[in-house]
Amino acid sequence: MTVLLPPPLGGASPEERPLGNAPLAHVVVQARFSSVLKIDSKDGVATFQELARKDFPLFDQVSATSMQVDLTPTGPAFRPVPTNVWRFSDPARDVVVSLTTDAITFETSSYPGRSAFLEQWAVILRWVQDTYAPGLALRVGMRYLNRIAGDAIAQLPDWIAPNLIGVALPDLRGHVSQAISEANLEIEEGRMLLRWGILPKDGTIDPGLLEPINSTSWLLDIDAFSDTQCSFEADALINTYQRLSERVYAVFRWSLTDAGLTHFEGRS
To answer: How many Å apart are CA 146 and CA 202, to the nearest integer?
Structure first.
């Protein structure tokens, strides 16, 4: 029997409203796929670079380490294995595509809106499909990190739903250095990890995605994903990402009061 999830975890997403004053700090979307070992070499990534370099002309090779599991007579043994992360960026380095042997990632701190972002992501997925034909997508996900900082934190009770404020309330906030809450949730499209709360000055939950700033801030981190294995077909995958992005938006809208929506639309 199908279980219907309550809004905002299931059902239709609200109609998208342009947010001229959005608190969005960073967006990252990723597809993990069955490993393609030739991606680890410069020769193996050259064809992909030819496709990417018009939009992402800056190229960097970053050394990383992954863990490999070896089966031994005494049980599984883990050992570090060096690997490469190939990064392709726009001239301002505001938009970055990262490619490894088992994942493609697209991220930006200058979000152009859902339609434009997913349109570019669809192009990138087709580059991977046409160049490497990975066969299987193992995990798809997208993550939106929102931040309210500085004096604006005083407006949290007006802008944010009460169940997401907690110790960020005015009478407690001055005595709280850090407080992050976390919830693992079922959603219609898979799973969601939701984090919210107070970060101290120079604090972050992930320095690679959320740059530390020189003031206390309030965070809303919405990470929606599906671990359902499927064929790596760009057109089908982008439909999944469309649904995930709508679910993220539904949760974001659920987090706002009417006054918060008005403010982030830029009408106050």
So the answer is: 16
Nearest to 94 by CA among 115, 63, 120: 120
Amino acid, res. 180: I
**Burial of 198 (C-beta count, 10 Å sphere; 0-12/13-18/19+):** buried
The pLDDT value given to residue 176? 80
Q: What is the DSSP string of the chain?
A: -PPPPPTTTSSPPPPP---TT--EEEEEEEEEES--GGGGSHHHHHHHHHHHTTT--EEEEEEEEEEEEEEETTEEEEEEEEEEEEEEE-TTSSEEEEEETTEEEEEESS---HHHHHHHHHHHHHHHHHHH---EEEEEEEEEEEEEEGGGGGGHHHHB-GGGTGGGSHHHHTT-S-EEEEEEEEETTEEEEEEEEEE-TT--S-TTTS---SS-EEEEEEEEEE---EE--HHHHHHHHHHHHHHHHHHHHHHB-HHHHHHHTT--
**8-44 pLDDT, tens digit each:** 999 999 999 999 999 999 999 999 999 999 999 999 9
Give the distance from CA 46 to its chain's centroid.
Answer: 27
Residue entry with tokens 């959603």? 187
Task: Give the model confidence (pLDDT) of 91-132 as tens digits.
Answer: 999 999 999 999 999 999 999 999 999 999 999 999 999 999
Q: Measured between alpha carbons, how far is 262 from 268 in angstroms, rounded to an integer?
A: 6
CA atoms of 144 and 64, how far apart (whole Å) = 24
Q: Terminal CA-to-CA distance of the chain, rounded, Å?
A: 46
